């Protein structure tokens, strides 16, 4: 019997492999609940959770809200744009105000890297980072690990290729930390302008040709291409990106036959990944989303379901 | 279950008596349920599961037809989660049948306060509406804190609160026995 002896989930950099294993195992049990007709367990009955999203989100937000409801918790969602943040209230004040209303856990997505750590240090409630700037998106990393583990049966020794704008991607960062901790080999591919400057620190190799990177790969993960990066001149056009780096059946032909195709969403069809590949039997994109709810349920249980220090 | 120091006091069941008790319970189940076609067995993790599996095979020996078996993990329905020092790991629940209108025989190793069975009933009812829920336990050690009783009992073992009943089953512990242990810290 183990526990997640921490207050917050801020990033996969500081979480151990044992903790990741516990989270993934718990998520498996949680997924079963989602398959029932009555998707409800009473475990977090009466516990209050705040979802604070300063950036738009479909998947992550809905996923967290449903996870909370499936566990019988009470949740409140505040979108940054429609809150008093617009009137100039600080982050710390916002959350402290809500905390004294009885909220025990805050799920936050924020455009500034490190915001989640800052928040965690300044409030008593548990904090789950739903994405902070370009830093980390730990729940996405965990659900990706969960999906791969579910489909492949193991993580150790797998070759996982991450393709796209790694430089600006918090999803990539969390995945690199998580995959390496669990013994997988990570390789990157994408335009050199969209690769992080210090890769040796991460212990991963970057290719500028996807075809080379995916040789014998078990998993390929396409990252979303953000149009804003085009405006800053980091790549010439969506069409050119799609032609050189977009995943298609042809481009990933050198990978293993049971290659798993993944994407954190939202997909730009025909840009990062072709429609036919995204909808093919090898695509785990929808399983990622289901796994996302299960993983978030697991985290809520592990953070809030046990003993609370008074 | 516990990492506190325990001293062995007595062995109340061995492999032979466990087998006899389960076979007797098998016959009692058949006797009480005229029509076993709507009967299902649900074992409560952890040790209720191998016991339920054995009942399933004994029932098949006697009646010929296989009775469906499910596995229930009640961790998420416990009433004591916030009081525990360690946090129980949640294992999967697998009920591969529709519970509606079925007669469910819940199987567990030890019946004590009754809280586990309360949680099990809540969990089952979240899955559907059984026609009835019956309870089969290997050991009833008394000290009920809720109005819960077993329909089928392997052995009644009066105990004191400072004692612990340890059930070992071949499938998990490589041995079949039931021991009374004294908790030395009480």
Quickly list its features:
heterodimer; A: 310 residues; alpha/beta; 5-stranded parallel β-sheet; 4-stranded parallel β-sheet; 11 helices; 37% helix; globular; B: 186 residues; 3-stranded antiparallel β-sheet; 4 helices; 8 strands
Quick structural overview:
With 310 residues, chain A is an alpha/beta fold. Chain A has eleven helices and nine strands. Chain B has four helices and eight strands, in the order βαβαββαβββαβ.
Please describe the topology of this protein:
The complex is a heterodimer of chains A (310) and B (186).
Chain A: H1 17-34, E1 48-53, H2 59-70, E2 74-79, H3 91-99, E3 103-110, H4 115-122, E4 126-132, H5 138-152, E5 159-163, H6 170-181, E6 185-189, E7 205-207, H7 210-213, E8 219-222, H8 227-231, H9 238-245, E9 260-262, H10 275-278, H11 285-304
Parallel strand pairs in A: 1-2, 1-3, 3-4, 5-6, 5-8, 6-7, 8-9
Chain B: E1 6-13, H1 15-32, E2 39-44, H2 48-63, E3 69-72, E4 103-111, H3 115-127, E5 132-140, E6 152-156, E7 163-168, H4 170-173, E8 177-183
Parallel strand pairs in B: 2-3, 2-4, 4-5, 5-6
Antiparallel strand pairs in B: 1-8, 7-8
Written overview of the protein:
- The complex is a heterodimer of chains A (310) and B (186).
- Helix content of chain A is 37%, strand content 15%.
- Chain A contains 11 helices and 9 strands.
- Chain A has helices at 17-34, 59-70, 91-99, 115-122, 138-152, 170-181, 210-213, 227-231, 238-245, 275-278, 285-304; strands spanning 48-53, 74-79, 103-110, 126-132, 159-163, 185-189, 205-207, 219-222, 260-262.
- In chain A, helix 1 crosses helix 11 and helix 5 packs across helix 11 (285-304).
- The model of chain A has no long low-confidence stretch (mean pLDDT 92).
- With 186 residues, chain B is an alpha/beta fold.
- Chain B is 27% helix and 29% strand.
- In chain B, the strands form 2 sheets. In chain B, strands 3-2-4-5-6 form a 5-stranded parallel β-sheet. In chain B, strands 1-8-7 form a 3-stranded antiparallel β-sheet.
- The chains are: A alpha/beta (310), B alpha/beta (186).
- The A-B interface holds A 1-4, 22, 25-26, 28-30, 32-33, 36-38, 40-43, 298, 301-302, 305-308 and B 73, 76-77, 81-94, 122-123, 126-128.
